[in-house]
Specification:
This protein has about 190 residues and is α+β, with helices and mostly antiparallel strands. The chain contains three helices and twelve strands, in the order H-E-E-H-E-E-E-E-E-H-E-E-E-E-E. Strands 3-6-7-8-9-10 form a six-stranded mixed β-sheet, sandwiched between helices. It has a two-stranded antiparallel sheet with strand order 1-2. The radius of gyration is 17 Å and the shape is globular.
Length: about 190
Amino acid sequence: MKARERAPATYEDLLKVPDHMIAEILDGDLEVSPRPGARHTRNASVMHGDLCARFDGPPDGPGTPGGWWILFEPELHLGADVVVPDLAAWRRERMPEIPDVAFFTLAPDWVCEVLSRGKERAVRVRKMPIYAREGVGHAWLADPVAKVLEVMRLEAGRWVVVGAFAGDERVRAEPFDAVELDLGRWWLP
């Protein structure tokens, strides 16, 4: 393994990044990316709305399965890594209340990364291993250009693809498979 040539990035380094950028610390490196474009933002926003309408509430709420807290771009401090997934969710049985904090140290049960130009490599090569190490049970990768949703489950420390869906399919995707989701709503034409 190659010796590190510079000191690991610190949270102070992250705080110096301008507000119009997204900053993360992955494996000791400061990873900075521009705010996402319209296609990415709309994809994440509609997914968030669809999932919140059905799952972000008390378990077995009126007409919905509920049982989750679903957040948009939460800052996660997972060991020495600081990651900001597009969406993350915790089962209410693991996190009964949302703490009033700037960042979370409890790994979520599910994350979703919307893939943008230049972001895919960092997500697949750097962030997904962090999520696996921390025991995140499910991950979705959404590609708003290709209009593809890839659904993964963590099994024995490895990501297993349990489904890949495209276009305007209606799907049941783990861990939110209690209801059917209309992928066609998520993508811009």
